[in-house]
Amino acid sequence: MAFTASSGSPARPWLLLLAALSLVSGLAPAARALEPAPLAGAIDLGAGAVAGRLIEWRRHLHAHPELSNQEFETSRFVAEKLRAMGLSPRTGVAKTGVVAVIEGALPGPVVALRADMDALPVAEEVDLPFASRATGTYEGRSVPVMHACGHDAHVSILLAVAEVLAGLRDRLPGKVVLIFQPAEEGAPVEEGVAGAERMVAEGVLDSPKADAVYGLHVWAGQETGTIGVRPGPQLAAVDSFEIVVTGRQTHGAKPWGGVDPIVVASEIVGALQTIVSRTLEITREPAVVTVGQFQAGVRSNIIPESARLVGTIRTFDEGMRDDVHARLRRIAESVAAAHGASAMVKISRGYPVTANDAELVGRMRPTLERVAPGRVLEIGKLTVAEDFSFFANRVPGLYFMLGVTPADQVATAAANHSPKFEIDESALVTGVRALAHLTADTLFAGSPSR
Question: Which residues are catalytic?
Answer without folding.
Answer: 118, 184
